[in-house]
Design brief:
Layout lengths: L7 E4 L4 H16 L8 E9 L2 E11 L17 E10 L4 E10 L5 H26 L5
Antiparallel strand pairs: 1-5, 2-3, 3-4, 4-5
Length: 138
């Protein structure tokens, strides 16, 4: 039985070679200003909790990245994603970069929304585990 579900998976060191390839590709593409690359970009700025968070999401169809490592292992893979988060606190600014692979088509606005919804769920579950089960104390 085949499922019709889509996926968005975070790339970390658990897939070291693919993670490095995607990171290097985005680095090189940024250096040329994504010239000649079919890219979708979404940017959002949110203020709250004594900080300003700017999230920029870049999505690129898999076809733009030649020779993607072990492409055949990812059924339905369509898009590679880079999320850059810049968080400004009152006395410092930090930046995080995260990479994802997804079966969704390259639409930065949609993918940004899905990733943000996931983090909302993740944060509420963490709060429940911490407050109800005192997970942070164990």
């Amino acid at each position: 039985m085949q499922s019709k579900a889509d996926y968005i998976l975070s790339l970390k060191d658990n897939h070291f070679t693919l993670h490095q390839q995607v990171k290097n590709w985005f680095g090189a593409a940024q250096c040329i200003g994504f010239e000649g690359i079919n890219i979708s970009i979404s940017q959002r700025i949110e203020k709250g909790h004594n900080r300003i968070e700017k999230r920029t999401v870049y999505t690129v169809p898999v076809s733009q990245i030649p020779g993607l490592y072990q492409l055949d292992l990812w059924v339905g893979l369509k898009t590679i994603v880079m999320v850059v988060r810049s968080i400004q606190h009152w006395n410092k600014t930090t930046q995080e970069v995260q990479f994802y692979i997804t079966s969704l088509v390259s639409d930065a606005n949609k993918i940004a929304s899905v990733i943000r919804q996931h983090w909302g769920i993740e944060n509420s579950v963490h709060w429940t585990l911490d407050v109800t089960f005192h997970e942070d104390e164990s």
